[in-house]
Amino acid sequence: MKKVLIPTKLDKEVSRILGDAGFAVVQNPEKTVADLAAENTDAEVIIVRSEKVTPEIMDKLPSLRLVVRAGAGFDNIDTKYARRKNVDVMNTPGANSNGVAEEVVALALAAYRKVVPADISTRAGKWEKSKFMGRELTGKTVGILGLGNIGRLLAKRLSGFEVKILAFDPVLSADKAAQLGVKLCSVEEIFSQADIVSLHIPENDSTRGMVNGKLLSLMKKGAMLINCARAGIVDEEAIRAAKAEKELIFCNDVYKKDAEGEKSVADIADIMLPHLGANTKEANFLAAKRAADQTVAYFKDGVTTCVVNKGVPDGMDEKFQTLASLLAGVAASYLGGEQIRRIETSFYGKLHAFGKWMLAPITGGISKDFDPYLSAADAMEFLKARGIEVVDREVDNEKHYGESVTIDLITTSGSVSVRGTLTENQLLLSRINKFDKIYLDLTGNHLFVEYSDAAGIIGKIASLLGANSINIIDIRAPQDLEQNHSLAVIKTNVPVPAALIEQIKADVKAVKAFSFSC
Q1: For position 516, what pLDDT does the model report?
Q2: For 231, which DSSP code?
Q3: Partners of residue 420 on adjacent β-strands
Q4: What does the buried/exposed string (b/e) look like for 87-115 if buried means 16 or more CB atoms within 10 Å of the residue's CB?
Q5: Alpha carbon separation from 70 to 9, 31, 34, 77, 88 (Å, rounded)
Q6: Burial 252-261 (b: 16+ CB within 10 A, else e)
Q7: Which of 67, 271, 301, 455 is 20 to 30 A away from residue 231, measured at CA?
Q8: By the 8 A CB rule, do 326 and 420 touch?
Q9: Is the separation of the CB atoms in 147 and 169 below 8 Å?
Q10: Alpha helix locations (H) across 303-370?
Q11: CB-CB contact of 83 with 309 (8 Å)
Q12: DSSP string of 133-202?
């Protein structure tokens, strides 16, 4: 009988389903994961919510085969160590989405109608109707950053208020956006036009601190910002400054640390909640049910659909997955945010047999909203939901490309094609469009500048970089003779700031200019 440890206040439905399926369940939210593991060293499964599953915990359980996070995010679990221990890690994506979407609506209504201060005032025996003059949600313009499960449900929940919805999602097609009843816009357009902006994007190197002074300066006077995503996305000091200047309404449910103690946003948040997004009976029940059902299916039928730390098949070097992700990232950067309609791939040599193992890394490369550790089925579902077609082409190995990867991203107005390979254990970009034989190591920081071929351009770029104390480590400068274009690919010691990229683009009259870091 397989033993399951549940050191969390998860709905008892999880114990019922597992018990009926013949599992021995130890559910005790009063004990720590470490203590429960020490007392049950024969356990094969742990199901948690926000509790941390560290290498030390896993080492206490020699029979451990599966860790399930009853929720979407799984950064509380050391997935890489789990992989080394041959332990699968699952999540239950979507189980909490409706709870978070409804919370956003609740925050918007509560802030507009001043529900919290009015309640406090009335309980104190006061009658301050004029002080609590509110606003209506109906007819407003709402901006949603990120149209994953939560963002889509939020758009659906808001539809009854007859709002206009603007949305940003870098991999959502215009056709799919139309089906959802939203208008795709840039982040800047959303912040300048929306009455309410709601954040539903992950926190990573590209999104950390993205809601900064520049974006907040675009907002309407009296606009509202709602953060139920991750604390690090917003620049708290910038919000502090915008409160006075813009009369910004700020509603918050996420913090750097989920724990008791003073919160750094206490002086700027109009409403702040203790990370209640998924804290509903329904979400708790659904997360419990999915965690139990997935555990049963995993052991009974070998279903691994929601495993987020899958390894690679025998015979495949996992570095090719990293290569595919980086190539997709370069291609997406080249497109500069254009909506992708189709992905076409070619895997040469022995790699052709492993094409499906490349799809998740490629999807992660074009969208930070997708975790590259998920499966090909998850990636296909993610792309399909955004109206993106996937074509894995038959290859002609007579071209003698060896074991290499080609990725084409197609938009309504154009396309980009990149190829790369592994050489001496290095991840190399070998071609962009007709710029061939680049052979660039993709690790580090890179500046790409495409321009009409002319003398002195690279010198101008180098001069601008030097003037900004940026050192050049390597330069590649292939040509496209048909278009009479050149491509300067410059590896730098630090990332090139966006403002400097725009200056370089203007000064050399570049066709394209973008950066890419790994």
Answers
A1: 95
A2: G
A3: 405, 429
A4: bbbbbbbbbbbbbbbbbbbebbebbbebb
A5: 11, 18, 18, 12, 14
A6: bbbbeeeeee
A7: 67
A8: yes
A9: yes
A10: 319-335, 356-366
A11: yes
A12: -----TT-EEEEE--SHHHHHHHHHHGGGT-EEEEE-TT--HHHHHHHT-EE--HHHHHHH-SEEEE---
Burial of 139 (0-12, 13-18, 19+ CB in 10 A): exposed
Residue carrying structure tokens 């239950």: 92
Are 213 and 163 in contact by the 8 Å Cβ rule? The answer is no
Express each pLDDT in 144-171 by its tens digit: 999 988 999 999 999 999 999 999 998 8
Which of the residues in the chain have pLDDT under 70?
A: 311
Its pTM stands at 0.73
DSSP assignments along 4-69, one per residue: EEE-S---THHHHHHHHTT-EEEE-TTS-HHHHHHH-TT--EEEESS--B-HHHHHT-TT--EEEE
CA distance 435 to 173: 28
**Whole-number Å distance between alpha carbons of 263 and 318:** 42
DSSP 8-state assignment for residue 260: S
Q: Record the tokens describing residue 426, joined without a space.
A: 């290095």
Query: Nearest 10 degrees: CA dihedral of 235, 236, 242, 243?
Result: 160
* Residue 330 tokens, joined: 């370069």
Question: What is the per-residue DSSP string for 412-429?
Answer: SS-EEEEEEEEETTEEEE
pLDDT computed for residue 402 by the predictor: 87
For tokens 């690279």, the residue is 458
261: left (phi over 0), alpha (psi -120 to 50) or beta: left
